[in-house]
Amino acid sequence: IGFIYTSTNSSSGNSIIAVARKIDGSLEELRSSPYPTGSTGDAAEGDFDTEWALRIVGDYLLAVNAGNNPVNGSISVFKINRDNGKLTQVEQNPSTPQMDNIDSRGVRPTTIAVSTSSEKTWIVVGNQFANPNYQGDPPVAFGSVMNSYLRNLAVFTFNKSTVNLDFAKFGAVYNAGIQGRPTTAVFNSSGTKFAVSTWSVAHFLSPDPDISFPTPGRLYFYAFAFGHLVNQ
Questions:
Q1: What share of the chain is helix, strand, coil (3-state, %, to 5)?
Q2: pLDDT at residue 45, as a whole number
Q3: Which residues pair with 77 in a beta bridge?
Q4: Closest CA to 178 of 217, 124, 121
Q5: Cα(198)–Cα(211) distance, integer angstroms
Q6: In what order do the strands lie in the sheet with 228-231?
């Protein structure tokens, strides 16, 4: 009666898992699943603390590829067969012989927001740049908070005729590491407002975290019109 899609976000090779929903409530992975994206994820031991790493836009599935750091991440586009749930990857650069994804215009893309009007479909990708954190007891630092313009919100349009993502502009750049790292992005129902939450410096497997270590998570609100984000 339907299909469910999720991603492995594996650092050894990201893939999309397709699962059929049966009328009795049971689930069964499709025989053709998983579907490789041709790029890598960036989950830490299976942990990927974001929302909307996948988005369905009409008959297409968009997926983030957060790996390849410090090289820019990418977005994969798949055509969904609505009858059997199977996915077919869509070429994003026909000028090359291999199957290409689209550059996310930042490092470690983690979240995708979509707004469709009668004229255009807007896609905003949140690029996190890095995921510094503390692990263990006592906490040990993994990575560090760094400034970078590759931590941003990148605005694309989805071209329905070519089925390509076309980069439009940078909606916002969070150069200062203390501004947090985009983790969940969403439009309101009319597409006139936009919000993004940012990820702080987390602790994993640390029973007594030092509260002086994290930078604050933040919530940003914007007005949206014609691809422009205006901070509210």
A1: 0, 45, 50
A2: 66
A3: 62
A4: 217
A5: 17
A6: 181-187, 193-199, 219-225, 228-231
Contact 180, 152 (CB under 8 A): no
Helix (H) or strand (E) holding 19: strand 15-21
- Two structure tokens written together for 31: 């025989």
Token reading at 117: 């009007």
- At 179 the pLDDT is 83
Global pTM exceeds 0.85: yes
Q: What length is written for the chain?
A: 232
Which residue's entry shows tokens 């999720």? 6
Amino acid at position 57, single letter: V
CA distances from 210 to 17, 46, 47, 84, 195 (A): 37, 24, 21, 50, 29
Grouped pLDDT means (10 residues each) for the chain, 232 residues: 94 94 95 95 80 95 92 96 96 90 95 89 95 83 88 94 93 89 94 92 78 78 94 84
Q: What pLDDT does residue 40 have?
A: 93
What is the H or E stretch that residue 218 is in?
A: none
Bridge partners, 223 (sequence order): 193, 230
Q: What local confidence, expressed as pLDDT, does residue 214 receive?
A: 66
